[in-house]
Design a protein that fits this description.
By secondary structure, the chain is α/β, with parallel strands linked by helices. The protein has a domain of 181 residues: Rossmann fold (3-Layer(aba) Sandwich), CATH 3.40.50. The strands form four sheets. Strands 3-2-1-4-5-6-11 form a seven-stranded parallel sheet, with helices on both faces. Strands 7-10 form a two-stranded parallel ribbon. Strands 8-13 form a two-stranded parallel sheet. β1, α1 and β2 form a beta-alpha-beta unit. It is globular and about 55 Å long. The termini are far apart.
């Protein structure tokens, strides 16, 4: 089966591409650039890399030609220049849907966010919701996967959290009163995406995908710290201060320690979906708990933050 993945060199897209190739499928990876953290970036057998923006209709139509399904995993968690939420999430999704329809693709799978919804005051959440609406109204057979906080090799959660703990054994929770989250192993998310793409499961459905454990952020931090080998001081910090820090980190770091969108996400919790969703069948329900073994598999090489992480570094 021939499957295209937008954002295919990113975190989730890279894991999905690798899993599909390992199963014997032909994968077309569509991305603006190459992220060397993932196997899909190195062009192994079974993967064709197409470098283009998700707003380029002609290039996407050519890339999707001969594909039976498209997984739209491209997305951003901060805005920089032309890479705005409106341009990437809304217009990009509309163009992807048009290109897929024009190329005769049978199935479109959108990776969205658990709490995406309209009228909430967050440009990130609202743009993700608008992307969902573009897919629902595309006329294609679709599956919308509203995922929670995803972790695994090459993620943001374990990567930045471990580097931060090794830089200074101090962590500030987002808000005085913590909101719960349900950490989702990327392997479990890939199972759902693969079922929608290959097995044509979850037809014309919107599903929520979260991990099996409801945890406070402080518990997540302490579990990661135990594996890393540090004993951090965890203190509460008002959400307003976190927004100020996020603004600063977005301008200081290549990949910010936390973005404004991520601050909003953690401040309101990531446990229940926003809006109606269909239930997952038992065989697709995530079961991997946030254990030491799972954390260890997803950790990067141990190192503190340094000069290389700053935007001014070459």
């Amino acid at each position: 089966m021939r499957i295209a993945i937008t954002g295919g060199t990113g975190f989730v897209g890279g894991h999905l591409a690798t899993a599909l190739v390992d199963e014997g499928h032909e994968v077309v990876v569509v991305a603006r650039g190459v992220d060397r953290r993932h196997a899909s970036a190195s062009g192994p057998d079974g993967i064709t890399f197409v470098r283009t923006d998700v707003t380029n209709l002609g290039a996407l139509a050519t890339a999707f030609r001969g594909c039976q399904a498209v997984a739209h995993c491209a997305g951003i968690n901060r805005q920089r220049g032309r890479q705005s939420y409106t341009n990437v999430h809304v217009r990009g999704t509309e163009v992807v849907a048009r290109a897929a329809a024009g190329a005769g693709v049978d199935k479109l799978v959108l990776l969205s966010f658990l709490r995406a919804r309209p009228g909430c005051g967050s440009a990130y959440h609202e743009s993700k919701w608008e992307a969902e609406e573009r897919v629902r109204n595309s006329g294609l057979d679709y599956t919308i996967v509203k995922a929670g906080v995803v972790y695994g090799q090459g993620d943001h959660l374990l990567d930045h959290l471990s580097h931060a703990l090794l830089t200074a054994p101090l962590f500030a929770t987002v808000g005085v009163h913590e909101r719960p989250l349900r950490p989702l192993a990327v392997e479990d998310l890939v199972v759902v995406l693969r079922a929608a793409l290959v097995d044509r499961a979850l037809s014309r459905a919107t599903v929520a995908v979260v991990g099996p454990e409801s945890l406070r952020l402080s518990v997540v931090v302490r579990r990661v710290a135990q594996v890393v080998g540090v004993r951090p001081l965890v203190v509460p910090l008002p959400v307003a201060i976190h927004y100020g820090l996020a603004w600063f980190f977005e301008r200081l770091m290549k990949v910010p320690l936390v973005s404004i969108a991520q601050t909003r996400i953690l401040a309101e919790g990531v446990e229940e979906p926003a809006g109606p969703t269909s239930p997952l069948p038992p065989e697709l329900t995530p079961r991997r708990r946030f254990t030491s073994d799972q954390i260890r598999r997803g950790l990067p090489a141990p190192a503190p933050f340094g000069w290389r992480d700053l935007r001014c570094a070459t």
